[in-house]
Design goal:
Length: about 700
Amino acid sequence: MSTQPSYARLQEHIRELEAELLRLRTDYREVQATNTQLEQFIQHSLDPIVITDARGVIVKSNKAFTLMLGYPQQEIIGKQIHEFHATEKSYECTSGEQITITGDYLSAQSTAFNAFMKTGSIAGITSYYVNKDNQAVPAEQNIISLHDSQGTLSGSFAVIRDMSARLRAEMELKKSEERFRTFFELAPDTIFLSDLTGTFIDGNRAAEKLVGYSREELIGQNYFNLSLLSPEQFPLAMELLQKNVAGLPTGPDEFRLTKKDGETISVEISTFPIHLQGQDLVLGVTRDITERKQAEDRVRRARDFLEKIFNTIGEGVFVTDHEGTIVRGNKMLADMTGYTEDSLKGMHYASLYAKDICPDDSSPVMDRLLNEGFVQAVEAQYKRRDGSLFAAEVNLRSLKDSGDAITGAVAAVRDVSERKRAEAALKESEERFRVLATSAPDAIVAVDRNGTIVFWNEGARNMFGYTENEILGESASILISEENREADRAGFEKAKKEKKSFFSGRHFYGNGLRKDGTSFPDELSIGTWQTESGPYFIAVVRDITERKRAEEALKAAHDDLEIKVSERTQDLEEANTALRVLLKGRDEDKSALEEKVLFNVKELVEPYIEKLQSSGLNERQTAYLETLETNLKDIISPFLRGLSMKHLKLTPTETQVANHIRHGRRTKEIAERMNLGTKTVEFHRDNIRKKCGIQNKKINLRTFLESLS
């Protein structure tokens, strides 16, 4: 049988392999382009980015990092990252404040670093860098560890946020991207021949290199017996071999091969049934795709990493093409503007501005972006989907391809509405304070933690005689009389340690000293506020000379009044004594008269009334007698309240019963105590009411008896 058709098939397959090699080279160029884009992202990032090796040595930094520190690139690369960190001392901060780096701060940084070494990442840690002018730069860092393909720590990737601007309310994070170095080695493909049972007939040198076996070791061996395939891959290999037996080609199919030295590699295998030299054989083409699989995994992890940054960054971010059409916007931008991420795609960036502009309108901002490649901290009015407006701060960076042609732009948008409101409120507050302090008649003086005068109003000038130019920067001690300075100094040191509430509602008194050397009494109300450099104090000072004079005059008048009151009181006491004697005599006369009237009625009238009642009077006489008795009782009733029990002529038993009633005891209890029957006690009660003149009247007997003295 002629072998020409089989060789022609082999030549055709070789041409297919050449075409596949061309495709692989194209893929490699695409990977290189991706790598270039990653490099451009790092260099064009709005945030400083630093990459270090495993020892902390800086191996790469972007332009934003050099701008933040003020050092050129060559003075940064090769240095330890900690050389640019603040040490334990005081600095002028780029935000305009004085800061002191303490041991506690350094300890916290060390703790964060140790946590980073364990977890491999750290987010939101605030550190202080030192720029070329020896100023402290506050920065927020997000750091992840970098590892090589074997998983060994190879360095770190840090995205840094310059936090110098005090008025920036949001933390700024920029898109960052881990640079992945991918390299595909284009090795020649492996070609082998086997029979329909899987026994090797022949193979090229690439096959020897691929699996580590020599040609002699391969020929005559069945690949099911060489441990090239793991047992779980046998079913697929048998299925493909059966297709070859049926005259069908297969592949490409992926397998994991174990080389002679135990190394495992990923391959793609394509098989073709051929008839060669009188035999039905299988032509197999094996391509090592290990590098490609690793590259795909690295690219996937890089894309996942960039996707997480893109969607978790604390700012609205969008990417446009070269015409300004938005091709991607993150969730923060969608939440900020009221659109969805999908609806942002295809919009022109100008649609987000409050002012309607045409896509082709030129502007100074766009001109700067085209000429310089980036624009930072541009303020603009943005428009939400519902038409409401908000103030925004925008950073722009152009994107370029490998030929340096602009392909689009990336923009980071920060909502600064709260910052604007805070600025307006602060300005209004400062203006109110300025007007109040300037127009206040009292002296208003502010000092720093060292006691140096930092504020002086017109009232202070009028009170002490110093002009603002003369007094600012001077020690506040020159305003205090010499005899009080030492005590005031000790009090000031104590005040610096007190809480703010210590001064609330309190007034302090002392003696002020004018420019001309005269002293005067003063009263101070003190307030305090805390800053990074320490406490500040503000005092409202009042000259209380006139008050002191008035208090002294008032005291003298008070003393004189006390003397006069004492003398007048003595005169009144003597008059009151005489009056009390007269009133007492009158009361005694009144009591004597009441007792005499009651006695005469009881002794001289009532006995005869009783005799008349028992003398057998007719009906009319009896009526007259009852009327006479009733009228008589009405006449003497005003005197009954002053009646004593001794005038009632009670029997001894009635007297005992009356005393029990006065003490609140009931009839049953009285009967038990006196060993009498309850009806007997009731009989005595009726006699007592009758002798008291309150029979058949709604008057409580106990209350009446208690009123008798």
